[in-house]
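Why does residue order matter? Because the sequence determines the fold. Keep that principle in mind as you read this record.
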Amino acid sequence: MQRVRHPFRARHVQLLARETISPGFLRLTLGGPELSGFVSAGFDDHVKLILPQAGLEKPNLPVMVEGRPHIEGERPTMRDYTPLRYDVARNTLLMDFAIHGAGPADEWAQSAPIGQWLGLAGPRGSLLIPRDLQWHWLLGDETAMPAIERRLAELPAGSRAVVRVQTAHAADRRAWVSAADLDLQWVDSLGEAVQPLEIPQGEGFIWAAGENRSMAELRTWILAKPGANPKRMRIASYWKQGEVGHHEELSAAD
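Structure:
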């Protein structure tokens, strides 16, 4: 596993298009001259989406001050999202939004006018997990779906991907495909779906992301399985009940 750091960069981008891909998901297309050179090396990278501040055509962007990002004036609303796909030729970035609340980011994703400016910062770094491992576990709830979709598109033939995704609504399930041998199940309970799984022999990696409490429990269950290796897993809390803007690593490869 390799950690890669990227030079800090914040950009102004525009909302170019919005598509409803299922009842619980929007796919937004972002673009603009400053997006040129965008780099996202890891399938579960995250960028900071910086929403416009009231009265400003473009939001104030963070700059590095003594090694830390700093924003002048009113602090804007910022949220972490996974960049789904960057198109170099078109200089556009696709990002999926799981709409499951009435927060400012959800409201903006649903109602912002096409052409509106916003900010994009990062990613600051990537964890590069080899694609040619013998097996991969990809586990999560709706918030993990962009990273899982991106990873499945990257995996080569000859590897095996075991995917379990917990969704609140069946209409949000997708017909994912992969060059890898794919074992995909959409489930009502991620914990119940993972408990009977056995960790395979050979080189592999376990990746999971979702709600904080669920991911903490999932980590405990996985580490209790024969063959579990904490250095061969990454489990992240992408959100937390009752908390705004939460993102936390619960288990990461060193």
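The mean pLDDT is 92.
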